[in-house]
Amino acid sequence: MDVGHDCEQKASRILRPHSTPATLMWLEENYEVAEGVCIPRSALYMHYVDFCAKNGMQPVNAASFGKIIRQQFPQLTTRRLGTRGQSRYHYYGIAVRESSLYFQLSYSKKGTGSNHDIQREVNKQIPLYSPRSRLGTVLPDFPTVKELNLPSSIDVEKITTFLMMYRTHCQRLLDTIIRGSFNEVQNFLLHFWQGIPSHLSPLFETNVLVNLIGVCDSILYKAISSVLLPTVLQTLPDSLTKLIRRFVQELDGWLKMALNNLPEGLKTIKLEMAKRFAQVLRRQMSLNHLTQASRMVVHNGDVISQMLHDWRQIDIDAICRETLYSMEQDQNGLTCQLIKKFSKEFESLLEEEGSMEAYVEWLEALVNKCILLPSSNASISVRRLASQFLLTWSAFGTRVIRDMTLHSAASFGSFHLLRLMFDDYVLFLVETIHIEEQVKEFLRNIANDMPPQIPDTYLAGAEYSQIPFGLDTSYNTREQYSNISTISNQEIP
Q1: What's the CA gap between 171 and 176, in Å, rounded?
Q2: How confident is the model over 274-302, as pLDDT tens digits?
Q3: Has this prediction a pTM greater than 0.85?
Q4: Is the dihedral angle over the CA atoms 313, 486, 35, 175 positive or is it negative?
Q5: Which residues, in sequence order, are bridge partners of residue 96?
Q6: What is the C-alpha separation between 172 and 275, in angstroms, rounded?
Q7: Any idea of the CA torsion for 36, 38, 44, 45, to the nearest 10 degrees?
Q8: Direct distance between the N- and C-terminal alpha carbons of the chain, in angstroms, rounded to an integer
Q9: Residue 367 burial by CB count (10 A; 0-12/13-18/19+): exposed, middle or buried?
Q10: Could you give the dihedral angle defined by the CA atoms of residues 484, 485, 487 and 490, in that order, rounded to the nearest 10 degrees?
């Protein structure tokens, strides 16, 4: 950075002002769009400072230069790469042209040429999914009989036989979905469940098998979700979105037909796990749409500057006190300290013009700090901690939006859009935690020979009944965010 400072000082002696058209032409001549290529933000700025020095222009600061880059490359994103403590911000999706004075192999298309060839080949084979989806074709291991603490009354040999059959069936379902042949799923379900050998049928009346199916289905559905929607941050093709929505709608009917005349306990667990799977997929698709709309906000420097200004006008201390009114007793003021800490971190993300990936990482760290870490050090249940966290999150977010409404904040629409995305992602993380806790409960039920206890929904029960006015638990948010997106677009010059 010292070198950059010296270059800037030398350039500042020249009277000729900065020229945006000349800079845009220079960017076009020296850089090109390239998927999978990253350039450190500081390196690209140094190139720009060198260009200004050679052409007698005074360079603008790094933030202003970032806005100019996005004029030339509007699809450009920012990522923080590197090991912890050594990470740097990079521009993702841009490469140095081979003809450029600043050409370096690692910052060019040639540096990732082989990856592009591989990706093109994979796309020919699996048109609906990213190359990473091939990594999910092998179903994770199911529990083995040796790992399970089975009651003495259970026939171990029959359980082992069923597990082998069921894993083969689930692997076939996963492979079929990866190929995009969703309609074949119905036939596989019907063939398996109506073709169970008669000597295994008595197992379906046992608590052990019903709980075990709950564990196995959790593993299967998690694998399917990771293949269909590896991350909420990627853009989904419309064709894939339509296929997933149709699959989710039809799965319940397919299962009911396949499970006809089978024991009620088995049908209940199968249908409930499928219902939760559908809920997670809808949440992920909702998040995908909200994330793409939110990118327009976080990647626009002018909007972020206005949001930062409006955020600093908020009285965090007052909002914190009001938030605590909705909660149980705040022992030692820890909750208030936590709210202020994460509020400061959000402000830092605005200051740094963080990428969408950075906001997602921040939300994951927040949930980990407030739910997972305390659950490992205290007797309080994960579900109870999640309830308290959602209550606090909702109350705080609602009061922030209320404060901005009263002050007619110019960036209200942008904040509201981000809040919709944040709310959905936080709920997605909590739902994921709840699935993991449910699997542990299934395993405990197997050891105790108890039937599964399943709440109606993820957010059902007394512990979640007090969630107030703030968190939107619906999944059809496309219509909801489209109006907010329009407002945000009006804010973007």
Answers
A1: 9
A2: 999 999 899 888 888 888 888 888 888 89
A3: no
A4: positive
A5: 31
A6: 20
A7: 120
A8: 31
A9: buried
A10: 180
